[in-house]
Design goal:
About 30% of the residues lie in helices and about 25% in strands. By secondary structure, it is of the alpha/beta class. Strands 1, 2, 3, 4, 5, 6 and 16 form a seven-stranded mixed β-sheet that branches. Bound molecules: flavin-adenine dinucleotide. The site of flavin-adenine dinucleotide (FAD) has 35 residues, from helix 1, strand 2, helix 2, helix 3 and helix 8. The site of flavin-adenine dinucleotide has 35 residues, from helix 1, strand 2, helix 2, helix 3 and helix 8.
Length: about 450
């Protein structure tokens, strides 16, 4: 039996961030990963999708190059090469994580880990990493590959899994989830995407750019639930112009290999399709994990970070939660001053949709503020008020929308237009630091940048 200060189950963004930080601060750390280091994010989520979307963007740029005075005759693409480049990118980044673990002195164990003593939380199924019940033993025992490991502290970073809804007929079809969609080397003639959330819409733009006839079916009355509704509708209008069809407030009631039956306003209709892609969401691998602001579960020796907490299901949230958990553990084990512990803040978690054009938001949306009864004013400008945006986006549309409280505090910032994913960081810092509109406006922004639109809007 080998003893560790810290055991971590799951090698995704939460797990590898926690492991690196703990190892670098002198904790004897073991990290268990049953599939591949990097987790969903690196292997089948954030990075693979963004790599494919970038290829699609390059193809689109080549197709529309004449708008910029550049001739690019009959551009074509090779999906198998696009997938091969995606795989190469993933391999490179996973190797980088492996090197980081070695450098931090973390022992990586490949295999499925189970907590022998168990923790609070309901096990979802037999493959679940924990057994329900509260541990009494101050040392946590973990079994993996017929060996037992003990640790003073444990961080659960086991992530989330795709939700498969009970749609009649669906399980008998060869439907794709995001995993299969990332590996497929042929462009389907048509694709029905069930679910108009971030993942569904990103795949919609990818396949639409490659020439697939894409239809999105969404149960809510707008795509991208949780993002600013006005900007989501504007993006939907842009994507409709590009040929993507949308059925909103529509429920899928049945599926076969080549058709999807939907119900809208009590009327049923059938959509024929070459392929179905299911993206109705993800759920934590463990149900009902409870954590405090230090990411501690009701058992003070056990922490949980990332998708398994079921909060935000985003890689950047997972990373920050891991930093908070390790800072607390270092304090608890008297490695650092206990006062250095930090609390997790969910005030400024950016949400980004990497479509073309991109959408990004941070802080409150108008919908949230109205629900919470918080008074606010809206400042809004078209992106065309930025010279750099005009220079780089021929006939491009976009919006910068800033929500301000009555005391001048910036409550939310929402952007449509490239590169919203990069610009949103500026707004995130301002909101996290509690800056007022006046304070942010006093910052000098480089010229010409698209980021100046934030200053201009303020
Ligand atoms: C298609 C897609 C696109 C996405 N795009 C983005 C994006 O652009 N930006 C963003 O922020 N987020 C994105 N996400 C979400 C992001 O991938 C997750 O939020 C992130 O991976 C969560 O990190 P995590 O460490 O909590 O879990 P994961 O990355 O899921 O890692 C959990 C790991 O735990 C391992 N594991 C589970 N149980 C055990 C066990 N018992 N023993 C050993 N190992 C175990 C799993 O094998 C897995 O590797 C995307 C997700 C998908 C599916």
């Amino acid at each position: 039996m080998t003893h560790y200060d810290l055991a971590i189950i799951g090698g995704g963004p939460a797990g590898y961030t926690a492991a690196e930080l703990a190892g670098k601060n002198g904790l004897k750390t073991v990290l268990f990963e049953k599939n591949a280091l990097g987790g969903v994010c690196l292997n089948e989520g954030c990075i693979p999708t963004k790599t494919l979307l970038y290829s699609a963007k390059v193809y689109h740029t080549a197709q529309t190059a004449d708008k910029y005075g550049v001739t690019c005759e009959n551009p074509t693409f090779d999906l198998s090469k696009i997938i091969a480049r995606k795989n190469k990118t993933v391999r490179k980044l996973v190797a980088g994580i492996r090197a980081k673990m070695t450098e931090a002195g973390v022992e990586v164990v490949v295999g499925e880990a189970r907590v022998i003593e168990g923790i609070a939380g309901q096990a979802r199924n037999d493959n679940s990493p924990v057994i329900a019940g509260l541990t009494r033993n101050p040392l946590i025992e973990i079994a993996c590959n017929d060996q037992t490991y003990t640790a003073k502290k444990l961080i659960l970073c086991t992530g989330s899994e795709t939700v498969i809804p009970p749609i009649p007929g669906l399980r008998d079809t060869a439907f794709w989830t995001s995993r299969e969609a990332l590996e497929n080397k042929e462009v389907p003639a048509s694709l029905v995407i069930i679910g108009g959330g971030v993942i569904g819409i990103e795949f919609a733009t990818f396949f639409n750019t490659l020439g697939t006839h894409v239809t999105v079916v969404e149960m809510a009355d707008e795509i991208l639930g949780g993002m600013d509704k006005e900007l989501s509708a504007l993006l939907r209008a842009e994507l409709t112009k590009k040929g993507i069809a949308f059925h909103l407030a529509a429920k899928v009631v049945a599926a076969t290999d080549h058709s999807v039956e939907i119900e809208k306003d009590g009327e049923k209709s059938v959509l024929a399709t070459a392929q179905i892609l299911l993206s109705v969401g993800r759920r934590p691998t463990l149900a009902g994990v409870k954590i405090n602001e230090f990411m501690q579960t009701p058992d003070p020796n056990i922490y949980a970070c990332g998708d398994v907490t079921g909060f935000s299901l985003l890689a950047h949230t997972a990373v920050r939660e891991a930093e908070v958990a390790v800072a607390h553990i270092l304090g608890e084990l008297r490695i650092t001053n206990y006062e250095l512990r930090e609390k997790m803040s969910y005030k400024a978690i950016p949400g980004v949709v990497y479509t073309n054009p991109e959408v990004a938001g941070v802080g409150k949306t108008e919908e949230m503020l109205q629900k919470e009864g918080i008074p606010y004013t809206v400042k809004q400008l078209p992106m065309a008020f930025s010279g750099r945006f005009v220079a780089e986006n021929e006939q491009g549309n976009g919006v910068c929308k800033i929500l301000e409280g009555t005391d001048g505090a910036i409550l939310g910032v929402h952007l449509l237009g490239n590169p919203a994913s990069e610009l949103i960081v500026i707004a995130g810092i301002a909101i996290e630091q509690g800056m007022t509109a006046k304070q942010l406006k006093a910052v000098v922004f480089p010229h010409p940048t698209v980021g100046e639109i934030i200053k201009e809007t303020l």
